[in-house]
TrEMBL record:
This is Tetratricopeptide repeat protein. Residues 98-132, 351-362 have a biased composition (Low complexity). The chain crosses the membrane at residues 154-173. Keywords: Membrane, Transmembrane, Transmembrane helix. Residues 340-350 have a biased composition (Polar residues). Residues 90-139, 338-368 are annotated as: Disordered.
Length: 435
């Protein structure tokens, strides 16, 4: 019995089309599942195909639909095969009941496949009959590539460490610079104050500390301050040397020279000890001058011994006392004249004795004191001068030689003694100036 083939039903309208743009087109009625969108079309009705080969293939999905899973594609193929079998059998027998039974089975299979597709990540569809390609793996790095990568990492780490160290150094340096500036200012002020007060030792320590901590312009000022301290130190040392020389001159009985030496260097040496020594030298000069004046007064009174004693005191204070040399000559001349007068009077008394009455012989009168001769007097002056010259008392040696020349102006030994004393004195003065 031949049954007429029923015409294939037209694809029904989807009541709720897929939301994705790629799934918006309607599919064949035989497919009750949207495999690319993952939503089941529950109200789709299966269509009856005219023949087993009359069914057309579904439209190819666009590029965006390639992310569906392999399982969804297999489920779609299985659903289509089931629908094709159902359509072929219905074309031969033309019953409506089996067709109605096959549609729910296809719908159920499609729904299961869609549920699995939504639960798993979407993958690109693969052609039928081909295995899915394995996921790509990273190629193994060669030894050279690994070495290069490690070198890059090491360089990157070193660079980060260098940047960190530079940042830390900048922070520490900025804070240290401010602290050094404060220390520099304090040390410079301390050095200036100590230098103004005459404390050379403290000023030198503070100036040296300022040079060590100061920077830039402050360093130049600290160096100038240190140079000033060094000059002051040299000046102080020179003042100490001058002070020692002046004390030695005072001990040698040269108060006038000591006073002159101290006066010449008074501007550069103003310490208390130096000032006290200057006053001492000036007082010795004044005292020697007063002793010379007293000796002159005693000479006028014919007190030659007192005059000599006062003159000796004056020369002990100041061998260069003003007026001491002329006064020494005057005393020697007056004493020599007195001795000459005494000698003449004694000679005249012996030459003309007066007539005396005859009397018993009396005891002889004591012989008069012998008056020293001129040569003996000169010899005594020369001996005194030699002793003074050996003691480096050049003023006393010159005085003795001058006294000998006053007694005997043509005495060669006295003249040589005077020349030796003058040369020795000049040599001593040159030595002090060089020092």
């Amino acid at each position: 019995m031949t049954e007429e083939a029923q015409p294939a039903a037209s694809p029904p309208e989807w009541p709720q089309p897929c939301q994705a743009a790629a799934c918006a087109r309607p599919l064949y009625a035989a497919v009750a599942y949207c495999p690319y969108c993952g939503s089941a079309q529950t109200k789709a009705e299966p269509a009856v195909a005219t023949s087993a080969g009359a069914e057309q293939a579904p439209a190819v999905a666009p590029a965006a639909e390639k992310h569906s899973s392999v399982e969804a594609l297999q489920a779609n193929i299985a659903a289509k095969e089931t629908a094709a079998e159902v359509g072929a059998s219905s074309a031969l027998q033309a019953p409506v009941q089996p067709e109605a039974k096959a549609a729910p089975r296809a719908t159920e299979a499609a729904a299961k496949a869609g549920a699995k597709a939504t639960a798993q990540p979407q993958a690109a569809p693969q052609p039928a009959g081909e295995k899915a390609a394995p996921p790509p793996t990273k190629p193994a790095l060669s030894f050279k590539q690994r070495v290069v990568r490690w070198i890059r990492r090491i360089c990157y780490t070193i660079g980060l460490l260098f940047i960190g160290i530079m940042a830390l150094g900048y922070y520490v340096g900025s804070s240290g610079s401010a602290r050094k500036a404060e220390q520099c200012t304090a040390a410079s002020q301390t050095a200036s104050t100590a230098l103004a007060a005459g404390d050379i030792a403290s000023a030198g320590k503070a100036a040296q500390q300022a040079v060590e901590v100061c920077e830039d312009q402050q360093l130049a000022q600290a160096r100038k301050l240190l140079a000033s301290v060094e000059r002051a130190k040299s000046g102080a040392l020179r003042c100490e040397q001058i002070q020692a020389q002046a004390e030695q001159l005072l001990d040698d009985g040269r108060a006038a020279r000591a006073a002159a030496l101290l006066t010449r260097n008074h501007n550069g040496c103003q310490a208390r000890a130096y000032t006290d020594l200057s006053r001492k030298a000036a007082a010795a000069v004044n005292e020697a001058r007063q002793q010379v004046d007293r000796a002159r007064s005693r000479l006028r009174a014919d007190a030659y011994d007192d005059a000599d004693s006062l003159l000796d005191q004056a020369l002990r204070l100041d061998a260069d006392a003003a007026g001491a040399e002329p006064l020494r000559k005057q005393i020697a001349d007056a004493r020599a004249e007195m001795q000459a007068r005494q000698q003449r009077s004694q000679s005249s008394t012996i030459a003309a004795p007066a007539a005396q009455p005859t009397m018993p012989a009396a005891a002889p009168a004591p012989a008069p004191r012998a008056v020293p001769s001129m040569d003996a007097l000169v010899e005594g002056f020369l001996q005194d001068g030699e002793r003074a010259l050996q003691q480096k008392n050049y003023a006393q040696a010159k005085n003795a030689a001058s006294s000998a020349l006053r007694v005997d102006p043509n005495h060669a030994a006295a003249r040589r003694l005077l020349q030796r004393a003058e040369r020795a004195e000049q040599d001593a003065l040159r030595g002090m100036e060089i020092e």
